[in-house]
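Hey, quick one: can you model this chain's 3D structure?
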Amino acid sequence: MTSTVPNAVQHTDAQPPITMFGPDFPYAYDDFLAHPAGIGQIPATEHGAEVAVIGGGLSGIVTAYELMKMGLRPVVYEADRIGGRLRTVGFEGCDPALTAEMGAMRFPPSSTALQHYIDLVGLETKPFPNPLSPATPSTVVDLKGESHYARTIDDLPPVYREVMDAWNSCLEEGADFSDMNRAMRERDVPRIREIWAKLVEKLDDQTFYGFLCASDSFSSFRHREIFGQVGFGTGGWDTDFPNSILEILRVVYTEADDHHRGIVGGSQQLPLRLWEREPQKLVHWPLGTSLSSLHDGQPRGAVTRLDRTAGNRVTVTDATGDIRTYRAAVFTGQSWLLLSKIACDDALFPIDHWTAMERTHYMESSKLFVPVDRPFWLDKDATTGRDTMSMTLTDRMTRGTYLLDDGPGKPAVICLSYTWCDDSLKWLPLSPKERMDVMLKSLGEIYPGVDIRKHVIGNPVTVSWENEPYFMGAFKANLPGHYRYQRRLFTHFMQDRLPADKRGLFLAGDDISWTAGWAEGAVQTALNAVWGVMAQFGGATDPTNPGPGDVFDDIAPVELPEG
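Sure thing. Here's the predicted structure for all 563 residues.
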């Protein structure tokens, strides 16, 4: 795969793999999970105590699973379906093995805490066919009506190599890329913190686009335009141009945009298998206990109200009108739900945390998939010898088209379009069929001799995450100046810093994490919340395996002045 890693960084098999190890909070979650001492325990007097876990996405299910292992009784509330944005769907009337990933579909190897759970439940992964990756037979880049066919970047016109070199130079000159990448690979915490502290102070008010424009390497508007539409790794970056450059640096430092793998059979299997899993090592509960068995097979329904009640308790009202009160609760849904879908007591959080949630910026995202009879795109054009169709990046309405198959002759799936932000909003008023018709028209202009429609064997499935009532967006992405807000949300699990009447309700999930848009962030913040709940119940970690809260003061995120 074409990498965003500058050429100055040479990788060898002897080097440790990069992980999502900071830069804001350089804590080794993967080591924490793998340690034989486990991730903590609570006093036996607290065994069986109930803890509300609001949201049955990956973060909520990981939280509930680990709390159950400690001997607590998680009570999971889920408004829609277990999985959250790990949503795998089928096609009506087609083979059930034919699926579409409506949310998360590609995962970097640097997601090492996530990989712990993928391995735990026995799931397999395989390379994901990103543009120009080894898993992609061919890629077509179509800009301004001109198409280029490529197997590697060297097959594209020289300007694309110039753009990639400009991006690498920009990162090196403006963000100490090689130095930070090396420090993260070696888990050199002092060096990571030293580099990042300077960059946070310098770049918190800078957009991604402004960062590019400030670099001599990107003085050419043409280069910036091509980079925005094509990019390197997953494709174009222009939908991120208004966002904070700090968000982008987190992605490239951790190589989150490279070497992606998909989960065989669909990503939703991960939370579903954790829901059903019967741990071999657990406290208090008998062998054979699972989250499913504790809930008689189904989580409780949507939460409609949250209140602070006497004794610093959290009282939860669900859609059936049932009211339960808990000593601790973990909220893992999109934070905007606390502003709109759920009636909330202002006393739940300090006012600065409410402000941070209100300022959270979400990215829109849309996808549409169709099932096809076979991977016809691998047929060779008799004249050119090229693949009939390729993974496609374009400035037309479709933007990104992905071809997904399980081998010749088997039914396959095309993601006709994957778009973000304004490109996603353009699809919002259209029905699935209308969307498909526009997409096929765009692709027909790129591949005039290919009749895609004749291969379609079922109705399209689509999603616009901004229109999903329990999400209101795909994932958060900080705007310039949002660092302080994100720090408040991420560090909320350290509740000894909070007034006594603001403790006991913990935040977790992708939009609480520093690594927006990656399942790894959902896992990491779940583990933070688990540590916080453990501490709330008087528990502790083993001294040989300190948790994220135990080492917090040594690696706390940079704190910018607010005066």
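One thing worth noting: DSSP finds 17 helices and 21 strands in the chain.
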